[in-house]
Fold this protein.
Amino acid sequence: MDRTSVINAYKRYANIYDHVFGWIFHPGRMRSVEQMRCQTGDSVLEVGAGTGLSLPLYPPDVVIIGIDISPHMLSKAKILSERDGLENVAFAVADAQLLCFPDNTFDKVVAMYVASVVPDPQTFVAEIKRVCKPHGDIFFVNHFSHTNIWVRQFERFLTLFSHILGFRTDLSLDAFISQNQLIVKEITPINLFGYWSMVHAIND
Ligand SMILES: C[S@@+](CC[C@H](N)C(=O)[O-])C[C@H]1O[C@@H](n2cnc3c(N)ncnc32)[C@H](O)[C@@H]1O
C-alpha cells in the first residue's frame, strides 16, 4: 500500500466510514481513551484521527491534536468537532511517517486502527516515539494477524486487496513489538471476539 492508494481509499470511505466502521471499532476507542487516564492540561496526539469519532470521548481540559493524511476524513472530523463544540481540538492534514512536531512534544500519543494502514509501520512508530515525551504513554489499537493458522491464511489472501480495502490484515503483533522495540505495559483484546488488540507502551 502506498500513500496515494491510502488517500484514495479513504476518500472513498469518508462518507460511509461512520456507518460501516463507527460502531464496530467503538469499544476500542472508548477503552483506549479510558486507559489513557488523561490529566488536566495533558497534550494528546491522535494519529490517523479519521472522522474524529474518538474526539468527544476525551475530557474537555485535555489538548488534542488530530492529524490524518486524508483531507476527506479530516473534514468530517472538523464538522463533528464544530457540531459538538469541541474547543480543545485542533487538526492538521499530515503524514504520520513524517510528523511536523518537535521531539518530546506530547504527553500521550494514540493511533487507533492506523498501524495496518500506513505504508511503513516502522517509520510510523519511530515518529510517534520521537514526538512523545520520554516515559509518555503510547497506545496502538489495531488488528494483528490471527493466531489460528486458517484465519491467518485467509488474512494473507485479503492482503492482496489491501490497496482497495485501505488496510492490511497480516501485521504480526510479535514483529510489531520487537521490530519497534516497544516497552509494552499491557495488551488487551478488544472489539468483537477480541479480534483487535490495544497495545499500551511506555516511551523510552
Ligand atoms: C481505519 S481509519 C481509523 C480512523 C480513526 N482512528 C478511527 O478510530 O475510526 C485509518 C485512518 O488512518 C489514516 N492514515 C492512513 N495512513 C496515514 C498516514 N501515513 N498518516 C496519517 N494518517 C494516515 C487514514 O486516512 C484513516 O483516516
